[in-house]
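Self-study notes.
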Amino acid sequence: MTRTVLIVATAVMLALAASGCGQRGPLYLRDSPPPGIKPPKAKPYEPVPYPQDPHDAQRERDGSKDR
C-alpha cells in the first residue's frame, strides 16, 4: 500500500515538474530579449512636487509678501 502511494506521489510530482509554470517558448531576461522583441520603454522620472503650505495660499489671498 505505501509503495503504491509512493509511486503515485512520484508520478504526480513528475507530471507537475514537467508542466512547468505555463511559459511557452524559451525564457529570457528583460535585459537581453530575443531578436525581434523590443521591451517597453520605461516611464521617465517625474519629481514629486512639494505640498503647498496652507499659509502661503492665505498670504496670496491677503496680498501680503512678508513671512
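Second protein, same conventions, sequence then structure:
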Amino acid sequence: MLSICLLGACARPSAQVQPSPSPLATPSPTPSPIPIASPAPVTTSQSHVFVIVMENHSYGRALTGSYTAALAQKYSVATDYHAVGSPSLPNYLALTSGSTWGIADDGYHRLPAGGIGAQLTSAGIMWRAYMEGMTSGCFNNTYPYALKHNPFAYYGGSCPSQVVNFSHFAADMRTEVPRFVWITPGLCHDGHDCSTATADRWLSQTVPLILAADAWKNNGLLLITWDEGEDSANHVLTLVIQPNPVERASAHAYNHYSMLATIEDRLGLARLGRAANASPMTDLVSNPGP
C-alpha cells in the first residue's frame, strides 16, 4: 500500500454522506455545438473494452480500498489523471461524447442524438450499458439508480435498448460478451452515498467476473475511473487493467477525453469532440493485436 500512496497523495477518507435523489427528467435543450467525429483509426483487433465509473473520490481516498489498491499494485495506474468538470453529469457526458455540452449541473438536458453508443450501433458493434437499480427504463426509477450517471439517456432524449439493468451483467459475462461494456453502479456501490469500503467491496465482487471472461483474457481492456474528485484539483484514480500490462504507472497528464480517445481507438471508431485532440493512454494500453 505504501508504494501506491507514493504515486499520489493519499487522503483520509471523508465522512459518509446522505443519499441524494436522482434528478427528474425535465427536458431542456442546451445550446452547445455537436461534437464532430474525427476519422477513425484502422484496427484489426476484436478487443473488448470494459468501463466502470465510480464516484466522488480523490486519488488518494480511492486507494484506501484494499481491493482497489491491490488492482493498482498488479496492473497499471494513470497517476496524473483528472476529471474535466463538476458535478457528475458533465464528466459522464465527456466520457461518452467528448463534450460537457456547457452543462454545469446534474439536471436532465435533452441533447442531440449521438455519443459513443450511437457510434457503436452505427458500426454494428455490440454494446451494453449496465445500470444498477434501473428497473423501469432510463427515466422512471428510484434509489439507488441515478439518471445523472446514465449518459446514454441524454443523447436524443431516449433510452437505447442496449441500456439494461445490472442484473443482466453476470449472465452476459458467461455467454456472449458485448465488445463494449459500460457499468454504472448504484449510488451506494459507486461510493457516492456509502463508504469507500462498501464501494471497494462491490468492485471486489464485480471485477473478477470480467477478469474470468475469455473476452477480457484475449486482448481485453478494463478501465476503472472515478467521475470527479473532492476538490478543485479534480485528481482521480484511473486503473488500466489488461492481461499483460505494458507499464505499471504513467505520470502523463490524462483526463476523461483521453479515456474516450483510448476507447474509440481501441474499437476503431472516429474520435468525438475534444477526444479528437486528446492524448490517448498509449503508454498504459498495449497495442491491439491482429
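Instructor comment on the second fold: Residues 196-211 form the longest helix (16 residues).
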